[in-house]
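User: Reviewer 2 asked us to show a designed sequence for the structure in our supplementary figure. I'm pasting the structure tokens here. Could you produce the per-position amino acids so we can include them in the response letter?
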């Protein structure tokens, strides 16, 4: 249901679950950090956003899904199903401060490709954005605009505006749960 011109949004911050999993797997030294427990709990005890999903439907979301495979893993599914493309602004990705602090070299990868955040990825017509934003905030949720749906070229594609403000093509992909050493 995503259409050109729709805003791409996410609920909550991204990357906390992937950072928590990394802390559990191989960063015992960072486990003493004051915020480490928040990240570990985000991984071990996720909170599904069912009520926020219902509000999205009531307020005009054109497409929505959970972020189980990360933004760069799940957005291509919406694009393919809707036969559209997308542009994501990496500067707008909401990332938990703890993720940035504990993983200064990997925070963006954890936020865009980590997955398991139990947050929602959705699209909404631009004119419905204020209603969606206000309804989710009133319900205690957080909602962020991170990009826009674009017309499709030959095939659905993604581009990103990097942290440097430069646009470039982006390959889809997400954390692989079955990869060796993952």
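Assistant: Here is a per-position design you can include in the supplement:
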């Amino acid at each position: 249901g995503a259409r050109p011109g729709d805003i791409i949004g996410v609920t909550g911050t991204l990357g906390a679950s992937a950072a928590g999993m990394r802390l559990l797997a191989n960063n015992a030294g960072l486990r003493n950090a004051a915020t480490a427990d928040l990240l570990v709990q985000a991984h071990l005890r996720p909170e599904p956003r069912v009520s926020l999903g219902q509000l999205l439907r009531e307020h005009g979301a054109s497409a929505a899904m959970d972020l189980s495979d990360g933004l760069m893993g799940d957005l291509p599914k919406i694009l393919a199903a809707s036969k559209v493309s997308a542009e994501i602004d990496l500067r707008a990705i909401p990332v938990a401060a703890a993720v940035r602090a504990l993983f200064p070299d990997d925070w963006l990868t954890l936020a865009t490709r980590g997955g398991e955040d139990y947050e929602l990825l959705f699209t909404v017509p631009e004119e419905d954005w204020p209603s969606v934003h206000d309804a989710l905030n009133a319900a205690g949720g957080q909602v962020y605009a991170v990009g826009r749906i674009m017309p499709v070229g030959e095939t659905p594609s993604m581009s990103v505006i990097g942290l440097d403000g430069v646009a470039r093509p982006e390959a889809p992909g997400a954390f692989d749960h079955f990869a060796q050493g993952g």
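For the response letter, you might also mention the following. The chain has seven helices and seven strands. The first strand starts at residue 7 and ends at 11.
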